[in-house]
Design goal:
229 residues, alpha+beta
Length: 229
Amino acid sequence: MIDQLMMPLLAALFGTAFLYSLYRNLQEGRRRAALRAGFLDEVQGLFTGGLKAVRPDGFPRISGTYEGHTFDIQAVPDTLNIRKLPTLWLLVSLPEPLPLKGTFDLMMRPRGVEVFSHHAALPVQIEADPAFPHDCAIRTDHPQDLPPREVLLRHIRILDNPLAKELVISPKGLRIVWLAEEAHRGRYLLFRDSEMGGAPFPAAEMKPLLDHLIALRKDLLPALPETAR
């Protein structure tokens, strides 16, 4: 008789615990989603005007005007590379056309699985200048029309920073790819928790990247063909 009375009570307790756990998981999911969506909110404060969109993966893409130039910034997670921790990349682009015929793409520590880049699709690999950072690879689709060496040497040292991953100089403009975050090693190894973007990316760390692209463009233009400017 006691067992018959206890069974419904236990079932009710387990049901309540399950519903509470479900509720907490939903709340935690919403909290994490809000943090991801706000990952670039501090950076957006550097811009005049601008737009923000949240991608299907939950991370934002923003654009706006800084120092008279329009920038596009994307936060792109990479969780497909099973040999390393999941990473969150920042694609910082200055999409103002340049008088070039081809793309110059310098990738640091290339693995061939960079989901954020078209580096591997460019048909020609060229030998890196001895003055360029160690462990870089350069690919292009127009080896006869590369950016001037003297300009590159004035700006290439930013890639010595271990957070720097890629520099692209193309007819469409400029891009630098920067490592924003890696997943927490312990949580990932134990629980396969690849959550990233829990804290906003600091505007103070983004500003030097924007300034670098502006300075690179400023130095490139006088060194490129007059007719294309």
